[in-house]
Design a protein that fits this description.
about 110 residues, mainly alpha, 2 domains, two-stranded antiparallel sheet, about 5% strand, Aminoglycoside phosphotransferase, Kinase-like_dom_sf
C-alpha cells in the first residue's frame, strides 16, 4: 500500500488489479454520530465545494433525503429532527459581515418555511 498526501485527506491506494479499484479515505471528516445528524450534516454540506461553498436549495436537500430513505427510511423521531438539524448546520455557515454565498438568506428562508 502506498500512502498519498492531499491537503485535507489521507489517501491510501491498494495496488490495483485494474484502474477502477482505488479508494480515498478522508480521516479529517471521520466521525460517529446519530444517522439523522450525519444525514442532515451531509445534506447541508452537499453542494459546498461544487456550489461556490454556498448552500443548496430545498429541492436538492429533499432529493438527497429521498435517496437516503430509498435505502433506509427514517424513523418518526428522526423525521422530527430533520428540519431542526438542517437549520442548525446551516446556521453554522452564516458568516459575520458579508455573505457572498447566501447562507444567511438560506437560513431565513428555512425559518420562514416553518
Amino acid at each position: 500500500m502506498t500512502p498519498a498526501h492531499a491537503t485535507s485527506c489521507t489517501a491510501i491506494t491498494a495496488r490495483p488489479t485494474s484502474w477502477s479499484e482505488t479508494a480515498v479515505l478522508d480521516f479529517e471528516e471521520a466521525r460517529i454520530d446519530h444517522p439523522i445528524a450525519e444525514l442532515a450534516r451531509s445534506t447541508v454540506l452537499l453542494g459546498t465545494r461544487f456550489h461556490d461553498w454556498g448552500p443548496v436549495g430545498p429541492p436538492t436537500r429533499e432529493a438527497f433525503r429521498a435517496g437516503y430513505e430509498a435505502v433506509r427510511p427514517l424513523t418518526a423521531a428522526e423525521s422530527a429532527w430533520w428540519r431542526p438539524l438542517i437549520l442548525w448546520w446551516s446556521l453554522l455557515f452564516v458568516p459575520e459581515g458579508e455573505d457572498p454565498t447566501g447562507w444567511r438568506a438560506a437560513v431565513l428562508a428555512q425559518i420562514d418555511d416553518r
